[in-house]
User: Fold this.
Amino acid sequence: MTRSELVAEGLSVTFPGGMRALRDVNLRVGEREIVGLVGESGSGKSTLGRVIVGLQHSYSGTLTFAGEALDPRRTTKQRGAIQMVFQDPYASLDPRMTVWQLLDELLSVHRIGSGREDRRHRCEDLMRRVHLPVAMLDSRPVGMSGGQRQRVAIARALAVEPRFLVADEPTAALDVSVQARIINLFADLREEMGLSQLFISHNLAVVRSLCDRVAVIYRGEIVEMAATDAIFEAPQHDYTRQLLAAAPDLP
Amino acid sequence: MMEQTATAAALQIDGLCVSARIGDRSYKALDSVALSVERGEARGLVGESGSGKSLTLRAVMGLLPPNLEVTGGAIRFRGQDLLADGGKLLHSIRGTGISMVFQEPAVALNPVMKVGQQIVDGVAWRRGLGRRQAKELAAELLTQVGIKDPEHWANAYPHQLSGGMRQRVMIASAIASQPEIILCDEPTTALDVTIQAQILKLFKALKTDLGAGLLYVTHDLSVVAEFCDSLTVMYAGRTVEQSDDLAALIAAPAHPYTRALLAAVPRIRGPVRRLRGLASSAPPLTEREQTVAPPMVPIGPGRQVAPFTHEDERFFSRDDEA
Assistant:
């Protein structure tokens, strides 16, 4: 096993009103590892993603990243290290800004790059990394396809040079044909940049084609966690078996 | 004439062309679309966004947006052309002989009308049912789509239901008139995988119980592979391949576009391999060929494919080669 990049221990989240979204969750993601997190709507998978990325401040338990404890209130550097890609690329990008403005804003806030020209170069590199034409830097999300928008969202997540990516259902709003290329992009980011990832999805086939290990979450608890092959070949928990039986597949 | 009607498919679409007016020019949105659905048959209609699959359903229902119009071909229901008499026949068939299940039940259902009432609204009026009879029918339909305690839920409003239950309600409303054809526009896309499996099972049962024909639109081949008998593939407003035997088409796709679509589908079983994405989605309307699509040619029993001249690789994405 590789060294642990992210360790979550005893994470619990209770929402106002008493709804327990997470119960004593333990999760470890190694360096250069992609872990899938699967479960149904309301299982707590997005809440776990939000805790890890620092958007959900109120929780109990501990989070350690690269050997360093993470407080609910993070430093700019800590925030930059763990980035998130959201589900809906139609909602997550400001339609009034060009791609260049969307990316440059982040570089400026995180004080990355020396001067405008250097930042422009960095943005061009980001576009190449996500397989978008560099010329698209000067266009706005309006008129782009869902796949192109999601690539822009991924470029935004990469802009601050993170070590860890949380992707929350990043292909759920996309066609299967477009989804394939986005999955390949996540695989390439691990190969090329060594980026560790938590990949949240309700689509088991997608998780199988991308992830090294899979955690199954049900009603806020991780009920099974194993290597991807083991989950698909020999599921142990009833809920995992139910999910597998429900998943559609080609003959 | 009578004989022809008796042997005609429940729904037959023949050379259907739909044009979109953009500015002062007209572009082909659907070009020579051809497919048929028998009673008791579930046909999958697959393609990417912009392939024209949902538009085909809308054309059948007479629900085209104002800037689109049918410019050629025929839509036959039990052998009768629905477009021939200026839409009168279509009007009488819509909702009774042919009904539709939409993708977003939260949008399609009336939020201020009780569930039971909206399921039977149309059919109660047509059949002249009294209030009590209508209530009984609503409860019966809710039971048929797998909702327990139907009397209770008939009095609920759509917002009180989960997404899966709302979709069941919409299906109940689609089958209320015992249609021969049910058009389904991605009805499970917004649902969880476990709920999706339940709804697919329900469609399978309805196909058998009602003897209805289903035309099921989706971008996800693995969904139609779960329960459809036959398959039609669309690309850029045209039907490019079809088979009366879905499994045969998936086992040996003939058209390069079908092969590309299949290579993009992640699998639950079998060896894990890198997926291959498609090069790009269909070109926008204004950039498509404006020539007439050549008709599909038979390549086996119940099997047709559109002529293709382009090399296979055109449809595959370059940056996925690894």
Observations:
- Residues 2-97+177-320 of chain B form a domain with the Rossmann fold fold (CATH 3.40.50.300).
- Confidence is low (pLDDT under 50) at residues 1-6 of chain B.
- Chain B touches chain A at residues 48-49, 163, 192-197, 200, 219-223, 225-226, 247, 250-251, 260-269, 272-278, 281, 317, 319-320, 322 (CB under 8 Å).
- The longest strand of chain B covers residues 25-37.
